[in-house]
From TrEMBL:
Signal peptide: none annotated. Residues 1-123 form the PTS EIIA type-4 domain. The keyword Mitochondrion does not apply. This is PTS system fructose subfamily IIA component. InterPro entries: Bacterial_PTS_sugar_comp (IPR051471), PTS_EIIA_man-typ (IPR004701), PTS_EIIA_man-typ_sf (IPR036662), PTS_IIA_man (IPR033887). Keywords: Cytoplasm, Kinase, Phosphotransferase system, Sugar transport, Transferase, Transport. GO terms for cellular component: cytoplasm; membrane. It holds the Pfam family EIIA-man. It is found in: Cytoplasm. GO terms for molecular function: kinase activity. It comes from Candidatus Methylopumilus turicensis. GO terms for biological process: phosphoenolpyruvate-dependent sugar phosphotransferase system.
Length: 141
């Protein structure tokens, strides 16, 4: 099974894990988070996170989800990425995490694709017209 690590600002990672646990019915295995605070030193955190990645990898690799591309958490993740064993994706959201948890039986590159599509497809603009259309479809069932 592919391990998943969320590296994000503050408590975002833990909040996402709590939400995913609710959706999935139980806390998924091989899922961890690492919150980065304002005063954290990336050079000090890197070896700690390298150990977390190593512990999460049971041989199938690790997918690391981060929040904002170019920010400190993502910059640290960029130092953890290794071809064929550790992939990183920025822009983590709950649909991305749930999709990643659902498809951990595929290879790491395919899981990264699935996670990205889940994150992108989970972003929807709610307009009044779209809500009315959805309600009309539900009523006709």
């Amino acid at each position: 099974m592919i391990g998943i690590l969320i590296v994000a600002h503050g408590a975002l990672g833990e909040s996402l894990i709590q939400c995913a646990t609710h959706v999935m019915g139980a806390r998924p295995a091989l899922l961890e988070q690492f919150g980065i605070d304002t005063h954290d030193d990336p050079a000090t955190l890197l070896p700690v996170m390298q150990k977390v990645v190593k512990d999460l990898d049971e041989g199938d690799g690790v997918l690391i989800l981060s929040d904002i591309y170019g920010a400190t958490p993502c910059n640290i993740v960029s130092k953890l990425v290794k071809q064929n064993s550790v992939e990183g994706i920025a822009g983590v959201n709950l649909p991305m995490l749930v999709r990643a948890l659902t498809y951990r039986n595929v290879d790491l590159a395919k899981l990264a694709e699935k996670a990205m599509s889940g994150g992108q497809e989970g972003v929807i603009n709610f307009t009044e017209a779209a809500c009315k259309e959805s309600s009309a479809k539900d009523a006709s069932k």
